[in-house]
Amino acid sequence: MTTPYPIGIPGKPWTDKEKAQWLAVQQIRRSYTQEVAEQLDRLPEGFAVEQYGQLDYGDNSYPLYGVKSPQWQEGRPTVLVTGGVHGYETSGVQGALGFLARRAKDYNHKLNLLVAPCISPWAYETINRWNPEVLDPNRNFTPYSPVPESALLMAWVQQQRTDILAHIDLHETTDSDNAEFRPALAARDGITNHNWNIPDGFYLVGDSDKQEPDFQQAVLDSVSKVTHIADADHEGKLIGTPIARRGLIYYPTRQYGLCIGFSEAKFKTTTEVYPDSPRATPEQCNQAQIAAVIGALDYILKQLP
C-alpha cells in the first residue's frame, strides 16, 4: 500500500494553502554562492561570465549566470550546454562547471559555446525539483513561460542572436524521484502516483522530432569510457518508455516543455546519470556529464566542413 504524501488530501489538487505548506518545510542545504558562483570566478582567462537575470525568492536573491567562450565569432556554429534545470541533480551543475574549467578551452577554435551551469539556484540550494512556486522548470520551456528560471534562460539565448547547432542538457535520475518527487507531483495534481523503474546507469533522452541516432551514440560511446550505460528493464523500457537502442529513449521534447525542446538545434540530447548506483561515485557522475559534452562536441566537429 502506498503511503499518502504528507501534504494535501489524496485525489484533490493542491490549493495555495498546500503549496504554502510545501514551501514552508523547504530548507537551505547547500550554498549556490560557494558551489557555483565562486567557481565561475576561477574559470580560465577569456571566458565571459554574464548575469542574465536574477531570482528573488523571499529574503534570498539569486543572480543567474551564463558563460560565453573566448574567441566568439559571429556566424560560427554555437553549442548550448545547460545544467541545474532541476536543482537536486547535482552532477548536471558540477559537470557543466567541470567542463568549463577543464575542457571547454579545447573547443574555442571552431565552436561558440554558451553554458548555463545552474538554471535553478534556489532548487540547487534546497535540493529540489520545483521552484518555490511549486512549478517544474523542465516542463515550462515554452513561449510566455510562467517559470522565471525557464523564461530568463530562453531570453538570454535569444539575445545572443545566433543559431544553436546543438544543445546538451545535463540531468540525473535519482532514487529520490520515487521517494519524493513523483509522489509530490501526484499529490500536487490530485492524481494517482505511479513510480517508475529507475535505471542503474547512464542513459539519454533525445528529441523524437530530431533524433540524430549517430549523434546520440557518439555521446553514449564517450560516456561508456567513464561509467556504465543503463540496460532496459524487463519490458524493454527506460523510465516507462521503449528504448530506441541501448541507453537511449526519445521524448517529444517541445510538446513536454523540456529544456532541449525550445531551440531549433539539429543535435540535442538530455543526459541522465544515476548517482545512487552502487557502481558509480559522485565524481564518476560529474565525469560522465563532462564526457557526454565532449562526445557531443567531438561528433559535431567531425560534421563541420
UniProtKB/TrEMBL annotation:
Under the heading Gene3D superfamilies, the entry gives:
Zn peptidases
Q: What are the Peptidase M14 domain coordinates in residue numbering?
A: 28-305
The similarity annotation says: Belongs to the peptidase M14 family.
Please cite one Gene Ontology biological process associated with this protein: proteolysis
What is this protein identified as?
Answer: Peptidase
Q: Name one GO molecular function term.
A: metallocarboxypeptidase activity
Q: Which organism is it from?
A: Lacimicrobium alkaliphilum
InterPro entries reported in the protein's UniProt record: Peptidase_M14
